[in-house]
Amino acid sequence: MTDGPSEPDFDRHMLEALVCPVTQATLSYDPERRELVSKAAGLAFPIRAGIPIMLIDEARQLKADD
C-alpha cells in the first residue's frame, strides 16, 4: 500500500503578499502546524493542500502559550 500524495508545500513567497484579514498585520508561518499566524489578531489560519485559508471562520484562536 502507498500513503498517497503528500501535502503540497506552502510557497513562502506568498507570505510577503498576504496580511491578516482582521488587522492587516503581517503573518508568520508555522511549518509544524502548517498555519499562518497573526499574533495581532490572535488567530492562526490553516494551510490546506498548499493553499492558505484566510477565512476568519476557519481560523484557530491562539492560546496564551501559542
From TrEMBL:
The UniProt entry, under InterPro entries, shows: Trm112-like (IPR005651)
Please give the family membership noted in the entry. Belongs to the UPF0434 family.
Protein known as = UPF0434 protein KNW02_15065
* Source organism: Paracoccus marinaquae
Q: What is the lineage of its organism?
A: Bacteria, Pseudomonadati, Pseudomonadota, Alphaproteobacteria, Rhodobacterales
